[in-house]
Design brief:
The protein is mainly α. 77% of the residues lie in helices and 0% in strands. The radius of gyration is 19 Å and the shape is elongated.
């Protein structure tokens, strides 16, 4: 994604800061998606951890 714009930064920075200057409407839509992702990521992390420990077998010697 960065190559067509000749930008050497993270995509997140491009979407949150630079896209506003290029296309404000698209930037607003992207911001909504990023905000939802940010608000839900701790839940996905917790579910992944729960899933990890559900599949581990406890060995009692």
């Amino acid at each position: 994604m960065a190559k067509p714009f000749q930008i050497v930064t993270t995509i997140h920075k491009d979407v949150t800061e630079r896209l506003t200057q290029v296309n404000p409407t698209l930037a607003a839509e992207a911001r909504k998606v990023l905000d939802v992702n940010k608000s839900e990521r701790h839940i996905r992390g917790g579910l992944a951890t729960k899933e990890k420990y559900l599949h581990q077998h406890v060995s009692v010697d």
